[in-house]
Each structure stands twice: as structure tokens, then as C-alpha cells.
Amino acid sequence: MLKEKVLKALEKVRPSLQMDGGDIELISINEKTKVVTVRLQGSCSGCPMSAMTLKHSVEKTIKEEVPEVTAVEAI
Questions:
Q1: Confidence of residue 43 (pLDDT cuts 50, 70, 90)
Q2: How many domains does the chain have?
Q3: Domain carrying residue 9
Q4: Which of 3, 52, 59, 74 is 20 to 30 A from 44 via CA?
């Protein structure tokens, strides 16, 4: 259930990432800590702004949609 909610939230941020030539992939969700791990892809993976994108766009959206998530990390 948690995975489905997170995937749905990722679909909300995916279009803006794709407009800039990037994308995002869900890697894992720690069921105990509720930390979501993602991988930024394409131009987002090497972008100097990727840390800001992760915190201010991806994490914000996921936490709004799935309040039980405590953090979002990228690998």
C-alpha cells in the first residue's frame, strides 16, 4: 500500500523532471523508518541542482501525498 502511494506521488513530479530531460526511479522504501530511496536519471542525475530538486520538489510532494514518509534520499 505504501509503495503504491509513493509511486502515485512520483507521477506528480515526473513530468517536470522529464521536461528537463530527466526522470526518477523508486529504489526502495524502508518500512521501519519510512525513508524512500530514489534514483534521479537522465540530465537530473548529474545536475548541480539535483539536491535542491530532491528536497524542494520530490520530497515535498511525496510527504504531502504520503504523510507517513519521513524522508526522501537519492542514490
A1: confident
A2: 1
A3: 2-74
A4: 3
